[in-house]
Amino acid sequence: MSKPAVNLLYSVIPLILFIGWAGTAIAQGGLLLTPKRIVLEGRKNVGELNLLNVSDEPLTYVASFVEYAVSPEGQYRTIDTLREEDRAASPYLRLFPRRFTLQPGESQTLRVQFRSRPDLAPGEYRSHLSFRQVDTQQEAAARNPGTGQEESGEIGVSISMLFGITIPVIVRHGETSASAAIDSLRLIPGEEDEPSKLGFRVNRSGNQSLHGDFLVELLQPDKKPEAIIKRKGMTLFTPNLFRNFTFPLDLAEGTALPPGSQLRIRFMEDMDKRKPTVYAEALYDIPK
């Protein structure tokens, strides 16, 4: 007797994107993951992710690659049909293991390997590594015969994906470089009890993305620079040529920017370094 066909039905909630977050580790739903992004370049063609179950119950995950396009405002949209200009990295990546179960306190190393091709053009390629938690109890129950569907030769299997985590995987092949410039600076008055905001645009040129931190300082004569905005882990992905940013000013309640002062905006590699590489810098004059 032939076995009945299995029809897989997936129920998935939206993935949680960790693409511009500060820190080196991600913890969500009992899974601790580090690092929060993978960059393969030069002679480095294998990246590793360390996964740890910090919950009190077993967790099962399925890993796969997904593709996203990013808007100038930093919003992510799933790419259903890949084009050459999307420069997806997944066709050149191997992932192992793709499914794993971790007991409480157990860890797992996941490896991502880049395999180049002779005709691969220089530049940057990007895909996103997705981890979806599987409801194994529901999966097992759905696979159990006796649902009445065997007579039709088909068993419906509903695999419920509880939630997911997604991080970027970037491959830089051959010579790559990038530069940045900041323009379109403006102050946006706050509404009601909201603070005022600083808006600006960062322009990117070159064939690779830029990832770093923003530091905005208030400059006044005879006073030390005062940090009023700090944002870590911001990214300008290829192929976008610019991205718009808007950040609230971190000022004491009831205070305003002094007339005649300046705001200095810097986009840098890592503000925690003693001498970070500064990608771009701009000044904004507060009207007198």
List the helices and strands and how they pair.
Layout: E1 5-12, E2 15-17, E3 26-28, E4 31-34, E5 38-41, E6 46-53, E7 59-66, E8 68-70, E9 76-78, E10 93-96, E11 99-102, E12 107-114, E13 123-134, H1 136-143, E14 154-173, E15 178-188, E16 197-206, E17 210-219, E18 226-236, E19 242-248, E20 262-268, E21 278-285
Parallel strand pairs: 1-14, 2-14, 5-14
Antiparallel strand pairs: 3-4, 4-6, 6-12, 7-11, 7-13, 8-9, 10-12, 13-14, 15-16, 16-19, 17-18, 17-20, 20-21
Description of the molecule:
It comes from Phaeodactylibacter xiamenensis. Residues 131-153 are annotated as: Disordered. This is Pili assembly chaperone N-terminal domain-containing protein. There is one protein chain. By secondary structure, this protein is mainly β. It has 2 domains: 31-141 and 159-173, Immunoglobulin-like (Sandwich); 178-286, Immunoglobulin-like, CATH 2.60.40. Helix content is 3%, strand content 54%. Strands 1, 2, 5, 7, 11, 13 and 14 form a 7-stranded mixed sheet that branches.
Any key phrases for this structure?
288 residues; mainly beta; Immunoglobulin-like; 7-stranded mixed sheet; 3% helix; disordered N terminus; PapD-like_sf; Pili assembly chaperone N-terminal domain-containing protein
